[in-house]
Write a structure and sequence with these properties.
heterodimer; A: mainly alpha; two-stranded antiparallel sheet; about 75% helix; globular; B: mainly alpha
Chain lengths: ~500, ~475
């Protein structure tokens, strides 16, 4: 049995375990143990990966395993990882682990909640280990559907409408994606031979340019919906605002990156020429995402809405960086995926914890939290600093790299787009500092808030896990950055081979 | 004719024997004992079904009028399994006092229609095909009107028989034109002589209109919702799965075999019908509250997806259609089974009546959700694989725009499937349907459906087996 398959097997076993529990205590215990094992596996995978690379294995993907599933259509369960996938798996493991602890007191239908949450994570893990488009697509859709139940049943506010909107828009995206994937499949053997869904094999061939032009936009937009690509981002604010804490964490932290990862691994990698030709359309759209998301965040009063718009802006930046199609920008994009994933998960966890105490997320009604819950308040401030790209945190490293990459293009169009996108840093500072000032500092606005308690042990565990990772990347970025750069090497070779 | 060739017809002969035995036994049971007839018929039918699984070498009978091969055998087995599940689900309904006197008829009529479908599936000429089709259609009207004292049921029966007769007439007229143009009723002979002449085109239009009625393709679908709503829920399940599946199968065979030289002729028609059927079926399903009408329109939309798969002419198209129907049997019968269980226990047949069902009947709600997600094509449930391969089939001939229309339709369909899930899981209700236990047979049938839904997709071997059978067929 392949080591990577454990990443799907452990969640499945955890779900089975939860089925045998009776109440919240059992369900959360099994989930915590299961996701704890998953986190340990992920940490082990990171070191395992380094040791494999250290031993001189230079294959594009390592730990591969290939099982035939539908031989007549050449569909395989084909898995393997490179440094980027390892980083994404580690990110997912951290966020889901923190998510379980953030949902420690989920009283209503607790077993069902943990099952759906972990099912969602199963899809994400499966997606990141897949190297076969069919398997990848299967896991992708698997990740989308539990979302409906999670938001619809355990959400807040106009949850039914938000859940429906989110599900339909994401499934609409996956509809485009399905066409894109079938298009890639039927163009995967231009010189005769069997069609294939195998990403590594497709990367070796040269797809006809006409097909690329038709299927690249479908694939990119299909994944882009999940990455909140303007103007298809509208599911994001309402969805995140209505979702329960752990779901917002996982969704903004991991799933939106899954969209960006798909754009990168499938759309750009397999169809580089079309990506190059059509990049200008998507550069415009992502630039709008970045600035519009940041401006939207300024206008919001609800903490979750602020963070949702902020996510639109930050994930837009990831897509923007990917479209720059050079090594530095792409490196930055992937750093940003990890960094923003951790940071936004921390944000949503904290917002959930604050909301659980104050029962409001309106920034006009909260103030002076620093006095009553110093631990949570300091955490929030740190997350804020990381988000606006203060040196010493992961956000700085990622955004810096992206902008350095973006400015490598010297033509007017790229320059203008880059300058516009850079301006988002200032806007980000505005909305982060405004929130920090309003809710953490200043006088206490509501007498009732004086009696609130600070974080309990499971909340501390949840947030500290995320914080350690954020600071870790901020202080030792080269470790991660080198791994990503090495893994980008074969991809860059393909891009440069076809573009110049 | 060698005597052992008769084994080619084992499915049909067994069904006939089973039907006649049930008919005779029914005559000699009276009063209280009638409920035992249900068990008796079930056992007998299961035996017949198991014998049908024994493989027999392919061959033809009656000079090519009847053909048996791995694919037709497989399809008859699928139909048998579907009917068995329908029988299991009918247990609660048949035990009601008002049905005590007519249990035998229920089994005999269904088995006789199944006999007709088996002949239709195996037909090698238009005559066998038409006789099979009629044998399959006429008893259905009796079944639809089974609740004879309910005016809706009687109305549905009359509606069905009248429209069925008209559509059969149209179909027969089409066949006669094709016969006139080619001089033969045998599929293989027609295939050699068929050209895109005006007479053939006209004949084809009549033929496809008649078939469109049987599969309830838009714009020939208007009878569907009323008949499905009026009929007893188990009969609705039977109509939407078995009748439709068999008709779709034979349509695929006729298009691929008889009209294979004029592919461009029927591809245009099927393309247009597919787009219309999916879109209209979906749009009408959006606003239904009656669960039977809802599933009726959803099954119209599903028929549209089958047409998308048919576009990929060849063994991949054939395989994807058969594979989809196999999955569709478990999927739709799962949904209908839950609806029937609820209808038997509480009489509720509306989606709004399902509000809050999860809190009182969690297992039924989960099975319903699983079935609806399978209909919507959500992985890792079997329906996803069925749909994916239908689209792959269309993609193999480059119909990417059609696939795009189909997947967007699938997204729309998710809206109404989620609507039912929302009713069961999210909506609040002060007086939800109270907890109940359904009969053992019903639970067995639901177990079969769930097993099918969960395992068929992962077992790649099933798809490969159908692929091999289809390869041999061409």
């Amino acid at each position: 049995m392949n080591f990577l398959s454990l990443f799907v097997l452990v969640p499945v076993l955890t779900i089975t375990g939860i089925l045998f529990t009776r109440d919240l205590k059992g369900a959360r215990l099994v989930s915590a143990v299961g996701m704890g094992i998953q986190l340990a596996l992920a940490v082990f995978l990171v070191f395992y990966y380094f040791s494999i690379r250290g031993a001189g294995d230079l294959h594009e993907m390592v730990l591969t395993a290939d099982y035939s599933w539908f031989p007549s259509l050449n569909i395989h369960y084909f898995i393997g990882v490179d440094g980027i996938a390892v980083a994404m798996i580690a990110l997912t493991a951290i966020v889901i682990f923190a998510g379980v602890f953030a949902s420690w007191e989920m009283e209503f239908l607790s077993r069902e909640f943990f099952i759906s949450l972990i099912l969602l994570a199963t899809g994400v893990f499966g997606f990141f280990i897949s190297l076969d488009l069919f398997t990848m697509f299967l896991f992708y859709e698997l990740a989308v559907i539990p979302m409906y139940l999670l938001i619809g049943i355990w959400g807040s506010g106009p949850k039914e409408a938000s859940a429906m909107k989110l599900t339909l828009m994401l499934m609409g995206g996956s509809a485009l994606l399905l066409v894109g994937i079938l298009g890639i499949y039927f163009n995967s053997a231009p010189n005769g031979g069997a069609y294939t869904f195998n990403i590594l094999q497709i990367a070796k061939i040269h797809m006809p340019i006409a097909a690329q032009r038709f299927f690249f936009p479908l694939t990119f937009v299909g994944f882009g919906v999940l990455g909140a690509l303007f103007p298809l981002h509208t599911w994001s604010p309402s969805g995140h605002a209505s979702a329960p804490t752990a779901v917002s964490m996982l969704h903004a932290g991991v799933l939106m990156k899954l969209g960006a990862y798909g754009c990168f691994r499938v759309a750009i990698y397999l169809m580089p020429e079309a990506a190059h030709q059509l990049a200008w359309i998507f550069i415009i759209l992502t630039s709008i995402s970045v600035v519009y998301g940041a401006l939207g965040a300024i206008m919001q009063k609800d903490l979750k809405f602020i963070n949702a718009y902020s996510s639109v802006s930050h994930v837009g930046l990831i897509l923007f960086a990917l479209l720059m199609m050079n090594k530095i920008a792409m490196d930055g994009a992937i750093l940003q995926m990890i960094s923003h994933g951790l940071m936004t998960a921390l944000f949503f966890a904290l917002i959930g914890m604050i909301y659980g105490r104050t029962h409001t997320r309106d920034i006009r009604e909260i103030g002076g939290l620093m006095k009553v819950m110093p631990f949570l308040a300091v955490m929030y401030m740190v997350a804020g600093f990381a988000s606006l790209g203060l040196p010493g945190f992961s956000g700085f490293v990622a955004e810096m790299t992206i902008f350095v990459g973006a400015f490598q293009h010297s033509d007017l169009f790229h320059r203008v787009a880059s300058v516009i996108v850079v301006s988002s840093i200032v806007i980000t500072a505005v909305y982060i500092l405004r929130v920090v000032g309003k809710i953490l500092l200043g006088p206490i606005k509501n007498e009732v808030h004086l009696n609130l308690k600070d974080a309990s042990w499971f909340e501390k565990l949840s947030t500290t896990t995320l914080l350690i990772a954020i600071v870790g990347i901020g202080i030792l970025p080269l470790w991660l950055s080198d791994t990503i750069l090495n893994s980008l090497q074969p991809i860059m070779e393909k891009l440069t081979a076809y573009l110049h | 004719m060698d005597f052992r060739y008769i084994f080619l017809m084992r499915h049909e002969l067994l069904l006939l024997v089973v039907a006649l035995i049930i008919l005779m036994v029914d005559l000699f049971t009276v009063g209280e004992k009638k409920t035992h007839l249900i068990k008796f018929s079930l056992i007998l039918f299961t035996l017949g079904m198991l014998i049908g699984f024994i493989p027999v070498k392919p061959g033809v009978l009656f000079g090519g009028a009847f053909q048996g091969n791995a694919l037709t055998d497989l399809f008859k087995d699928i139909l048998n399994m579907a009917v068995l599940i329908v029988f299991l689900q009918s247990d609660g309904y048949l035990k009601k006092a008002e049905n005590a006197g007519k249990v035998g008829e229920f089994f005999v009529l269904i088995i006789l229609t199944l006999l007709g479908m088996d002949f239709m599936v195996s037909s090698g000429d238009f005559l066998t095909f038409f006789v099979g089709l009629e044998t399959a259609s006429i008893p259905v009207a009796g079944l639809v009107a089974y609740d004879r004292y309910k005016s809706r049921s009687a109305e549905a029966g009359v509606k069905l028989i009248l429209l069925s007769a008209i559509s059969s007439g149209v179909l027969l007229f089409g066949i006669s034109l094709i016969y006139g143009a080619t001089g033969s009723i045998y599929f293989s002979d027609i295939a050699k002589n068929v050209t895109a002449s005006p007479l053939i085109i006209l004949g084809f239009i009549f033929f496809i209109s008649g078939m469109g009625f049987k599969i309830s393709l838009v714009p020939f679908h208007l009878w569907t919702a009323d008949v499905y709503e009026g009929a007893p829920i188990n009969i609705t399940a039977y109509l939407s799965v078995v009748s439709k599946g068999a008709a779709a199968f034979i349509l695929t065979i006729i298009l691929y075999k008889v009209f294979k030289n004029v592919t461009e002729l029927w591809e245009t028609a099927i393309y247009a019908l597919a787009v219309l059927t999916m879109t209209v079926g979906n749009l009408f399903a959006l606003r239904q509250d009656n669960i039977k009408r809802f599933l009726a329109f959803s099954s119209i939309a599903q028929a549209g997806f089958i047409l998308v798969g048919i576009m990929g002419t060849g063994s991949l198209g054939m395989t994807s259609v058969v594979y989809f129907i196999l999955i569709y049997v478990f999927t739709n019968l799962g949904a209908f089974g839950v609806a029937a269980a609820i209808s038997n226990a509480s009489g509720v047949e509306t989606i709004s009546g399902y509000n809050g069902l999860y809190l009182t009947n969690p297992r039924l709600s989960l099975i319903m959700m699983l079935s609806l997600f399978s209909l919507a094509g959500i992985p890792p449930i079997a329906g996803f694989f069925g749909k994916f391969f239908l689209f792959t089939s269309a993609g193999s001939h480059g119909y990417f725009i059609l696939i795009l229309i189909a997947v967007l339709n699938a997204t729309v369909s998710l809206y109404y499937y989620l609507g039912v899930v929302k009713a069961m899981f999210i909506n609040k209700n002060d007086t939800p349907i109270p907890y109940f236990r359904s009969s053992h047979f019903m639970r067995l049938s639901l177990l079969l459906c769930v097993a099918g839904l969960v395992f068929i997709g992962f077992a790649g071997g099933i798809f490969e087996y159908i692929m091999t059978a289809s390869h041999l067929f061409f």
